Amino acid sequence: KRGDKNLELDLQSNYLFGSPAAGLKAELTLRLEHVLKSFDGFPQFRFTNERIDYQTVQATLFKGSLDEQGRTHVDWPLPALGKTPSALRAVLQSRVYEKGGRPNTHRRVLPIEPYDYYVGIKKPAFDYGYAPVGEKLNFSAALVDPRGRPTPDRTLHYRIYKSNAQWWWEYDKREIFRRRFKSDRHTEQVEKGLLISSTKPIDLGFTPTTQGEYLLEISDGEGH
Question: pTM of the prediction?
């Protein structure tokens, strides 16, 4: 959860009939990857920051021999989690090698919640993928906790940016353009304001007056 500095866990292995697998060689690996959060009560909402490109973390947490009880304790310092697009999960895989060298493997997945709250946005449907200039667009926003429960009466900050850049000229990929949208020299902030979260999705209207690429960003003031 948010605020945790370390991932602590124990690896224990026993033989089929219950006795400890004392002294056997073992290894424990981890893959820390992004999870696209979704909640049943909020279909078509995206609870992620598309501007953040999260790079999967892979690490070997333990490689050695188990003790006389067939155990080992792992205390692994977590990397900084303050700049992740949404939730994460730790995929743990252990291998314990029998004396003949045959590995026994086990896989476990642990959810990791970097944020206390998640902001979701539902975009309007666009004809042919584009929004018409001069017509009002109606967005919906929701604030939920990690279990997907609506969290009312909290202040949300919204900002709308516009860029005149053509990503296919300026950047090799659209994903790179999205990540650098706010820092691009062609970008300007065109609107900002406050919203108050509710038990139901809240509406936000915006009318684009000129052509360009627009970014709507809504944050809860505590990271997401």
Answer: 0.81
CA angle 209, 210, 211 (to 5 degrees): 140
Tens-place pLDDT, residues 30-70: 999 999 889 999 999 999 988 788 889 999 999 999 999 98
Q: Would you call 28 exposed, middle or buried from its count of C-beta atoms within 10 A (0-12, 13-18, 19+)?
A: buried
- Tokens in use for 159? 């900002």
Residue 127 binned pLDDT confidence (cut-offs 50, 70, 90): confident
- Alpha carbon distance 121, 13 (integer Å): 45
Please give the DSSP secondary-structure letter assigned to residue 132: P
Instruction: Show the tokens assigned to 77.
Output: 């310092």
CA angle 95, 98, 103 (to 5 degrees): 35
Centroid of chain to Cα 176: 18
Helix (H) or strand (E) holding 179: helix 174-179
Which has more pLDDT, 221 or 96? 96
Q: Are 151 and 143 in contact (CB under 8 A)?
A: yes
